[in-house]
C-alpha cells in the first residue's frame, strides 16, 4: 500500500496541475470555434521534441524543452493571425492541415531514429505515472504564473472570444493568449503526451458546456470532472497495469458520453 502511494502521489498531483489551466483554455477554444487548435499546437510542440531528439539532445533537457517551446511559440503567432479569417470552417481546415502535416513530419523524422517506436509511444501517451518531484516543482511554478496571467486578463480573453475585433491591438492580445497557450501545452506534452493534452483541453470543457451556462460554472464543473476522471484513471492504470495516459483519456471519453447522453435524453424527456 505504501509503495503504491509513493508511486501514485506525484502522478496524482501532476494531473491536478494539468486540469487547472487546461480546462480554462479549453473553454476559450470552444468559445472561439477553433476546436482543433489545441491538438495542432500540442502536436507541433511534440514535433519540436522530436527534432531535438534527432539533434542528439536528451528528452526533458533544457535544449530539448527550448526547441519545443520555440516550435509552439511560432505556431501560436500563426494561429493568432487566424483571427483575420472570417470563415470558421476555413480556419478549422487550416488548423487541421497544420496538425496532420506536423504529425506526418514527426513520424518521418522518428523513422530515422533507432528508438523511433518508443518515441512515438511517448509522444502520444507520455509517461505521467513516472512523474518526478522535480517535474512537479517546475510545472507547478510555471502554471502558477500562467494561471495568474489568465486570471488578470480574463476579461480581455473573454472579449476576444466574443468579438470580431481586428487591428494591431487585437492581434497583440490574441498573440498573448496563444503564447500562454503554447507555454502551457509544451510543458504538458513533455509529461502527458499529445492525447492527454487534447483530452484535458476539450473533454472537461465540452461536458461543462453541455451541463452549465455561465463561464464560471463551466469552469468549476470542468475542474471537478477533470479532477475526478484523472484521479480515477491514475488509480485504475496502476491497479490493473494499464497505460496511464490512455486510461485517463478513455475514462474521460466514456464519462463524457454518459453525461452528454444523460443531459440530452433527460432534457428531451422533460
Describe the structure.
The structure is a single chain. The chain is mainly alpha-helical and 270 residues long. The chain has one domain (2-269): ABC transporter involved in vitamin B12 uptake, BtuC, CATH 1.10.3470. Helix content is 83%, strand content 0%. It is built from 10 helices and no strands. The chain has helices at 2-32, 37-54, 62-80, 88-110, 116-125, 133-152, 154-162, 168-211, 215-239, 244-269. Helix 5 packs across helix 8 (168-211), helix 8 (168-211) packs across helix 9 and helix 9 (215-239) crosses helix 10. The longest helix is centred in the C-terminal third of the chain and has 44 residues, at 168-211. The chain is globular.
Secondary structure layout:
Layout: H1 2-32, H2 37-54, H3 62-80, H4 88-110, H5 116-125, H6 133-152, H7 154-162, H8 168-211, H9 215-239, H10 244-269
Helix pairs in contact: 1-6, 1-7, 1-8, 1-9, 2-3, 2-4, 2-8, 3-8, 5-8, 6-8, 8-9, 8-10, 9-10
Amino acid at each position: 500500500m505504501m509503495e503504491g502511494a509513493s508511486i501514485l502521489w506525484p502522478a496524482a498531483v501532476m494531473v491536478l496541475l494539468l486540469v487547472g489551466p487546461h480546462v480554462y483554455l479549453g473553454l476559450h477554444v470552444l468559445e472561439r470555434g477553433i476546436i482543433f487548435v489545441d491538438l495542432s499546437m500540442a502536436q507541433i510542440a511534440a514535433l519540436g521534441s522530436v527534432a531535438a531528439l534527432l539533434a542528439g539532445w536528451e528528452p526533458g533537457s533544457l535544449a530539448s524543452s527550448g526547441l519545443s517551446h520555440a516550435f509552439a511559440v511560432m505556431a501560436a503567432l500563426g494561429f493568432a493571425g487566424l483571427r483575420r479569417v472570417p470563415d470558421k470552417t476555413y480556419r478549422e481546415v487550416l488548423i487541421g492541415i497544420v496538425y496532420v502535416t506536423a504529425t506526418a513530419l514527426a513520424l518521418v523524422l522518428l523513422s530515422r531514429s533507432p528508438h523511433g517506436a518508443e518515441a512515438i509511444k511517448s509522444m502520444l501517451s507520455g509517461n505521467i505515472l513516472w512523474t518526478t518531484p522535480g517535474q512537479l516543482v517546475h510545472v507547478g511554478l510555471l502554471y502558477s504564473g500562467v494561471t495568474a496571467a489568465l486570471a488578470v486578463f480574463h476579461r480581455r480573453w473573454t472579449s476576444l472570444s466574443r468579438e470580431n475585433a481586428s487591428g494591431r491591438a487585437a492581434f497583440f492580445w490574441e498573440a498573448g493568449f496563444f503564447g500562454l497557450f503554447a507555454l502551457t501545452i509544451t510543458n504538458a506534452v513533455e509529461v502527458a503526451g499529445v492525447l492527454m493534452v487534447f483530452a484535458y483541453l476539450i473533454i472537461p470543457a465540452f461536458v461543462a458546456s453541455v451541463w452549465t451556462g455561465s463561464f464560471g460554472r463551466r469552469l468549476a464543473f470542468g475542474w471537478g470532472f477533470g479532477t475526478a476522471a484523472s484521479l480515477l484513471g491514475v488509480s485504475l492504470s496502476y491497479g490493473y497495469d494499464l497505460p496511464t495516459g490512455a486510461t485517463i483519456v478513455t475514462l474521460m471519453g466514456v464519462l463524457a458520453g454518459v453525461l452528454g447522453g444523460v443531459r440530452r435524453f433527460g432534457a428531451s424527456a422533460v
